[in-house]
Amino acid sequence: MIMRWFKENVWAAVAITLIRIYVGWKWVDAGWHKLTGGFDAGGFLKGAVGKPVADHATQEVLFPNYTYFLNHFALPNVKLINFLIPVGEFLIGVGLIVGGLTLTAAFFGMMLNFLFLFAGTVSTNPWLLLLGVIIFTAGTNAGRFGLDVYLLPILRKAWTKLTQRNGKTITG
């Protein structure tokens, strides 16, 4: 009953819109500073690999697969990472602020928060992750007061047209 209210009620949509705009602003701000400030992830990535998140008692690395990913993919491709992080943060923020592809923006925002947390950076990531989960959980109600009202019907129509041929639905 509470989830139904959360996903369908107009007042819940108002509250989610305020949260969405706040979180969006945080992402736009972070992305803009990186885009205009000469962002370089190299030092951060080297630090995350050199001193990975470890258990305090045993010093065992807690996320060895992530450390491997950073060392063998992210560091060798730091120029790509230097582009993807600031542009991604900025686009996540814009999507959340305008309510366009809201769930996609919230999803990728949560993913970035998780990646930063796996690297050992706490900062505002837990807070933004929690708010991102709230936005994502609201479903389409999160974009009720935004571009999603116009965008989602167009995307649904295009998807239906793409997945149907001669009146038959294409399956898996």
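(ticket continues) Second input and output from the same batch:
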Amino acid sequence: MLPIERQRQIVAWLEEEETLSISEISRRLNVSEMTVYRDIKPLLEDKKITKTSRGVSLATIGHIPSNSCTYCLKELNNRHPVQIITNDQKVEQLCCPHCGLLRYRDIEKNVSQIICRDFLQNTTISGKLAYFLMDADFHLNCCQPQVLTFDSLKYAEQFQKGFGGVIFQFEQAIEEIVKRMNGNRSCECHQLGGSYVDK
């Protein structure tokens, strides 16, 4: 597990449990306490977490600061953010569809809605009804592999004709992004230019 993945996991635990000791984090991650201290240092510097007498806790109990992506912890500045609304009406802000899909998978049972923005029209759409394009030759300088969202299959296919890539529906997009992020960050789909959409 990479440091950023451990940091995300620590933040996720703190969202649920509010406070954790360094020794407990070390035990759960199966790493040394020194590794935990290295992992939490950037979180402390960015004021995402704070030290307490019992270990560490979120700086703002219950959620990540509103200017940071819940999943990758980057500052939110992408023009295609994703929002996840949980069953208890908390709103999580994610920097892009890549992070939105991964976060949705992590907390699926607690999600009421996932909201994306159509890449071409910049309108709000339901993530579960959207079409997701990966591997397009169009770079937004955000999380990789990059994912673009479209309200309609027609618009996704038109964009695909010009910029390539593979189109997925919601569940397929989750499976694909999880597969690619599972330890092999350079993984590339062998069916470029194809489509996984049920027509």
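Agent notes: Confidence is low (pLDDT under 50) at residues 183-199. Helices lie at 3-17, 22-29, 33-45, 97-107, 153-163, 170-181. Closing as not reproducible unless the customer responds.
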